[in-house]
Fold this sequence. Notes:
Elements: H1 9-27, H2 34-53, H3 57-64, H4 72-79, E1 80-85, E2 98-105, E3 108-115, H5 121-126, H6 134-150, E4 154-160, H7 167-171, H8 174-187, E5 192-201, H9 202-209, E6 213-217, E7 221-223, H10 227-234, H11 241-248, H12 252-257, E8 263-265, H13 276-293, H14 299-312, H15 315-319
Parallel strand pairs: 3-4, 4-5, 5-6, 5-7, 6-8
Antiparallel strand pairs: 1-2, 2-3
Amino acid sequence: MTHYLEFEKPLAEIEGKAEELRAMARENNEMDVGKEAAALDRKASELLASLYQSLTPWRKCQVARHPERPHCKDYIEALFTEYTPLAGDRNFADDHAVMGGIARFNGRPVMVIGHEKGNDTKTRIERNFGMARPEGYRKAIRLMDMADRFGLPIISLVDTPGAYPGKGAEERGQSEAIARSTQKCLQVKVPVITVIIGEGGSGGAVAFATANRVLMLEHSIYSVISPEGCASILWKDSDKMREAAEALRLTAQDLTQLGVCDTVVAEPLGGAHRDPDAAIKSVGQTIAKILDGMAKTSPERLRDERREKFLAIGSKGLAA
């Protein structure tokens, strides 16, 4: 790992010193730094556990946005076989911020849809940083229609700061496209499972996440607005994002209490970016278990349960 978050700076120093010792030993075979490096490794492990034991909501935002966190493309490549991407909304264009297609999950045919942020400058620009335009949501509607027609469970992977707010997107009906995508989620008669793998922002996330089961990774976030945007509106000061993050209750743990999140998927110590393979495997196991549990539910009941779930959101937290 090469990127450390602001609150991980003390950890970066310790791990950096351990790596320096090992580099010196590689250059000079006579040097024995095993004990010193091992001591630094233990100290780093203890500090890592301490830092991640009780992350504040703002720190969880930072972890959820970590550039080395596994993205939609990584999950598709690791968990699905025979993935056949489907492109375009059959109306305007193909939106590269939204991936989707037919695949097999543990041998079972499914439809997978998700936001892709990209992992370097070139791909981030190509993917518009995971911010979908109207054609992206209309592509998703087309794929959900196909899944419903052929009885394919829908698995959506959400990782977006929000829908793209540009002039062209608004001209092409951004709000209407998001609403139609949300409506389509409520209409289909197949299992719909959503995983918030990083950042779930605003209606751009809800359009894919109106599901029978909403899973969130342990350090992911899901909110109607970003902490920075909230702070700018309420206090006219984006520097108050920490206070906004607390007030928004955007963590997986808070949203479980409110009835928005159904399952929290544990991440490796230090976040999914420290061990992407383990994080992806954990998500796959959880999806498999939930799909098996819904296998005998009738199509009509799947749709009705989904509608009832979203009508009831918030009542659990209000009652508490």
